[in-house]
Specification:
about 25% helix, about 140 residues, 3 helices, eight-stranded antiparallel beta sheet, alpha+beta
Length: about 140
């Protein structure tokens, strides 16, 4: 079992994976849920949330969160990035279109974005500071 270099971690996170976002809660385990995300190496990652969702209610600028992405086929690998929320903004049509197109393609993304109400969404930006990763390919 081998770790990944920082460059490999960032490249892996930029690839298409469903992330699993974890947010601390007082007197309970963290709220953990699958989520679509966007990330480019060297930058911040971002997600979109429903304004009234439990996730959104737990977040404010400065809240620390973790996002884990994994490769679901052998050889398995995962990357976890942890850091603070650095921005929460009104969701925009452009954000929804970019995120949805990443996961369901251009046509599906357009259809998805047309059916979403931007007034009900937030774009949350997270600065990755701590990285964990494992790549099981070295055992093959």
């Amino acid at each position: 079992m081998a770790g990944l270099t920082q460059e490999q971690k960032e490249t892996f996170l930029s690839e298409l994976h469903v992330g699993v976002l974890s947010i601390a809660r007082e007197n309970r385990g963290p709220l953990t849920a699958p989520i679509w995300y966007c990330y480019e190496p060297g930058g911040n990652l971002w997600v979109m949330l429903g304004r009234e969702s439990r996730k959104a209610q737990l977040l404010e600028v400065g809240t620390r969160v973790s996002l884990c992405a994994q490769k679901e086929e052998p050889p398995y690998a995962y990357v976890t990035a942890e850091g603070p929320v650095v921005g929460i903004a009104e969701g925009t049509h452009a954000d929804i279109l970019e995120l949805a197109s990443r996961y369901v393609g251009e046509e599906g993304g357009k259809a998805y974005a047309e059916n979403m109400r931007t007034a009900e969404s937030l774009t949350v930006t997270i600065r990755p500071e701590t990285w964990l990763a494992v790549d099981y390919a070295s055992q093959q």
